[in-house]
Amino acid sequence: MLFPPATHCHFVASVAYLNRIRRISHMPTDAAPTILVFDSGLGGLTVFREIARARPDARFVYVADDAAFPYGAMPQDALVARILKIAGDAIARCHPDLVVIACNTASTLALSELRAKFSVPFVGTVPAIKPACAQSKSKRVAVLGTQATVGREYTRALIREFADGCQVTLVGSARLATLAEAELNGQPATDKDIAAEIAPCFVVDKSGRTDTNVLACTHYPLLLARLRANAAWPVGWIDPAPAIARRVVDLIGPPPGRHTAPRADIVFTSGHALSAPLAAALKTYGFP
To answer: Which class does domain 129-239 fall in?
Structure first.
């Protein structure tokens, strides 16, 4: 049991989740690295995809804390405790060589505490404000994230340090991550819903208009084609996943010579059965 029964912020880990983690922890190991990818749900799939391309020889364990999705609804102290406990349990059982926190909210909130508590290397996910401002021609950038991410001092500190003369608009979406999860489950959002969530990103003044949007939630690249189709005008969309994959390679090195396809397992803290559309979508990412 990861947490005792208590408030809505805690949960009893499903038997299916714990059994799945135990089975993965008992799998045979070899010289290939084990990489643990952690997210509140399925947004980390966009990060996993890029890392798997960069290290196709690796063994991957993806932990989706869907029992608490979305993270923005949880009090901060309870969320930090939850992330430390669930990540710690997976680390203890799977013995990864590296952990990727593929969640902006979890990274901005708990990454320093994770690094302090565990000796394994961590790679976090934070809003890509520096590269966005560096590439913007109009010097008008929007940061599209969850309300929790854009409201944190961590994000504002990144703007102060890296805005480089850009006007940065923070846009907190209450629904976009949930819409991305629903789309993977075969329930696509309407164009009207997508357009409404991203509309505040598009700002015009007498000197110019937004030309670059930062995707500050790993769920949002799952909807990238929909975002482009419903944009008020063409803009650059900054997905952090390629940069995360490069950082992983910096830490554990490139793949050695010939290799097979990545070996990947995914576990959900809720233990709920997968819908047929989601199971099919996961297979396209390489999960059995």
So the answer is: alpha beta
